[in-house]
């Protein structure tokens, strides 16, 4: 019941919440800044630190004879505080308004000058709007009825209006960008993981289903993708099982044909028939091995790819087959070592059979790992570079039926590489070059 009342987590809802959150964050920061900076830029005079200077200066000038007070006031002036003395209050040309400081608002000044001292203050807000003379002014009445004025000629604290506006705009942008960055990350991360899982399924048909996460629309897309993935896996599994069963069932009639051929009187026809039967038997055995290939069940693990290649080369050298190797001494890679080993062994066997001076090279960049197996043989015609990956395809001019395979080696090799998210390509360069490209993390 509660779940029905709550709104669904949709893209529209997330976008709306992001906009609202950005506005709230921006307004909150600006309100805090205006509250703090308003007092900081134009604080009441009792918060400027001027009252202590006023008290000490007033006591010194008041103790002097009246004839010297104007001179002493001028001498007491400094770049931070302008002091002036006049016999009458209206000689200062101040606006109407101002306020008297009470004992509560200026306890320091009242304590130093006496509780009954008349003190008037003017803040910049007391001047007319846009007045160029707006400033702080403090008036202190002396014992003989004359007045001292204290005015800071230039403000030495806070920010002026353009600077405050720049800060307000900057804080608004920062708040908006921060909220947008957090919101887009929460929205983009499920999409990125969805895209990564889709790419992984393109290279690994046995990849696990995608975890449900994100807003409603993305979750619906993930559900649809997982359903499609399960259907494809089921279809391929059924087809593979059917083909494996057919290949297995063909072995029985081939065996009977082989037995019957032994009773043929025409030896020439008998020899040809037996050769065809053996070839068909080899093709069936290769097909069964291909369908029962267990590399797709292998789990990815971290291993030393360079050491694996050198171990394969050492196995060939034990058979008196020299193979050159170039590449780093060590390279940690996350993938399926059994599948990679079968691919490289197949490519090296082809290089040994159909070429000379086989070589293996290992290289790496930021995105991929590259393994090249090359030879100095006749290579493959350009028109057949892609066809050799077709199951049971053989180059009759360069492959002998007695020494060559049945045409499944390269097909199986490319299937294994693609299951790990990589690609196997062939090219001619002083012979054949087989290039295996694997992602840094298979």
TrEMBL record:
Residues 185-237 form the HAMP domain. Signal peptide: none annotated. Its main location: membrane. It is found in: Cell inner membrane. PROSITE patterns: HAMP, HIS_KIN. It holds the Pfam family HAMP. Keywords: ATP-binding, Cell inner membrane, Cell membrane, Kinase, Membrane, Nucleotide-binding, Phosphoprotein, Transferase, Transmembrane, Transmembrane helix, Two-component regulatory system. The chain crosses the membrane at residues 15-41, 161-183. SMART domains: HAMP (SM00304), HATPase_c (SM00387), HisKA (SM00388). GO terms for cellular component: plasma membrane. Its EC number is 2.7.13.3. It is a multi-pass membrane protein. It catalyses: ATP + protein L-histidine = ADP + protein N-phospho-L-histidine. Residues 245-442 form the Histidine kinase domain. SUPFAM superfamilies: ATPase domain of HSP90 chaperone/DNA topoisomerase II/histidine kinase, Homodimeric domain of signal transducing histidine kinase. One of its GO terms (molecular function) is phosphorelay sensor kinase activity. This is histidine kinase. The lineage of its organism: Bacteria, Pseudomonadati, Pseudomonadota, Gammaproteobacteria, Pseudomonadales.
């Amino acid at each position: 019941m509660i779940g029905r009342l709550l709104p669904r987590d949709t893209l529209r809802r997330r976008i709306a919440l992001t906009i609202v959150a950005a506005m709230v964050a921006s307004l909150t920061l600006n309100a805090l800044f205006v509250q703090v900076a308003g007092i900081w830029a134009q604080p009441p005079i009792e918060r400027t630190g001027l009252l202590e200077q006023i008290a000490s200066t007033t006591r010194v000038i008041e103790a002097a004879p009246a004839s010297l007070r104007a001179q002493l006031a001028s001498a007491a002036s400094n770049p931070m505080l302008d002091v002036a003395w006049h016999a009458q209050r209206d000689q200062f040309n101040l606006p109407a308004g101002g306020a008297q400081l009470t004992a509560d608002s200026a306890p320091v000044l009242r304590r130093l000058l006496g509780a009954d001292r008349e003190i008037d203050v003017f803040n910049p807000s007391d001047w007319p709007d846009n007045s160029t003379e707006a400033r702080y002014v403090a008036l202190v009445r002396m014992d003989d009825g004359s007045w001292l004025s204290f005015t800071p000629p230039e403000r030495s604290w806070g920010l002026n209006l353009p600077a405050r506006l720049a800060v307000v705009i900057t804080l608004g942008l920062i708040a908006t960008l921060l909220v947008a960055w957090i919101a887009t990350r929460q929205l983009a991360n499920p999409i990125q993981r969805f895209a990564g899982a889709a790419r992984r399924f393109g290279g690994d048909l046995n990849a696990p289903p995608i975890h449900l996460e994100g807003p409603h629309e993305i979750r619906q897309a993930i559900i649809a993708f997982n359903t499609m993935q399960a259907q494809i896996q089921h279809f391929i599994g059924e087809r593979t099982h059917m083909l494996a069963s057919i290949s297995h069932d063909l072995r029985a009639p081939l065996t009977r044909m082989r037995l019957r051929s032994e009773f043929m009187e025409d030896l020439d026809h008998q020899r040809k028939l037996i050769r065809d039967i053996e070839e068909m038997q080899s093709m069936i055995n290769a097909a069964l091995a291909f369908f029962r290939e267990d590399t797709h069940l292998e789990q990815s693990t971290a291993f030393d790819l360079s050491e694996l290649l050198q171990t394969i080369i050492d196995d060939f050298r034990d058979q008196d087959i020299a193979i050159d190797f170039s590449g780093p001494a060590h390279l940690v890679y996350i993938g399926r070592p059994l599948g990679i080993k079968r691919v490289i062994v197949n490519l090296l066997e082809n290089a040994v059979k159909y070429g000379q001076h086989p070589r293996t090279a290992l290289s790496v960049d930021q995105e991929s790992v590259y393994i090249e197996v090359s030879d100095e043989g006749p290579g493959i015609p350009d028109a057949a570079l892609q066809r050799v990956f077709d199951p049971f395809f053989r180059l009759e001019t360069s492959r002998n039926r007695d020494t060559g395979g049945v045409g499944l080696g390269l097909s199986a090799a490319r299937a294994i590489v693609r299951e790990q998210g990589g690609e196997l390509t062939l090219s001619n360069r002083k012979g054949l070059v087989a290039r295996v490209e694997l992602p840094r993390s298979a």
